[in-house]
Amino acid sequence: MTDSNVLVAGEALIDLFPTESGRLADVETLRRATGGAPANVAVGMARLGSPPLLWTRLGDDPFGEHLLDVLDANGVPDSLIAVDDERKTAHTLVADDPDADQSFTFFNEGTATFAMEPGTVSDEQLCAVEWVHFGGVMLSAEPARSAMFDLVERANDHGCTVSFDPNTRADLWPDQSVLIETIERAVRLADVVKTDREDLAFLLDDPADVEATAAAISEYGPHTVLLTQGGDGAYARATEAAPWGAATADQSPFDVDVVETTGAGDAFLAGAITALQERGTLADAVEFAAGVGALATTDTGAMAALPDRDAVEALLS
Description:
Residues 5-308 form the Carbohydrate kinase PfkB domain. One of its GO terms (molecular function) is ATP binding. 32% of the residues lie in helices and 21% in strands. The chain is an alpha/beta fold. The protein has a nine-stranded mixed beta sheet, with helices on both faces. A four-stranded mixed beta sheet has the order 3-2-6-7.
């Protein structure tokens, strides 16, 4: 693809991982990795041969410079990547305890990452794309929240397909009522929602299984729901309003040697957007997405193992 018909909006930041086990407070060395869910999606799509536009904001600092280098090396266009000479690039400490859920400590306040402003993406630029994707992290603070909603509402007006990944991080939301109100608004604006059974639990009435979860999310308006289930595969549901037609898909997991799961959901989403853009069936898109997500777990770092199309097709064959 030469012209990008997908726009991904949101954070590109640095993840810092401990290089040894134990309490994060006791760790002496950290490993740097590029991250941010939207950036992972953008690089994932680029590796698959469909580089999207990425609207993000970086600080004029070594972290920002590194992110620019990585995005450029992966073929992500830089026309909507802003560099802020007054603020720093956000970073996150990731605690990856094998005996507990992965946890995050965010250093976002006052950063360039969250200084995105409404109206930055013009109507002319929106008219040139068919799909807009955004995530929940940027909704946790202003002015980024207003910038994201401005973009998405105008994308809807222009007839773009809008996808949303809640990626709910409770530590970013000091006010639970604001979290619920904001994420519900985002879900209602989206055509496609990618999530898991836990991420939107605060909006749902304890659905019994993935089928009920997908149906409950659809009640908010999205015509397609993609549910990742970790080691149990993935499930998807689309209504008649979806361009790919009403359907369900239940995808078994792929057998790969898992090294690290960071970013696997972002890889899945990169595969899903790529495949759905090609107007195949829902089942084919979910199979392709699950293959991308599985291969992304075979190395450390959210971006390091993002596969190219040949690798995915080899896994599926």
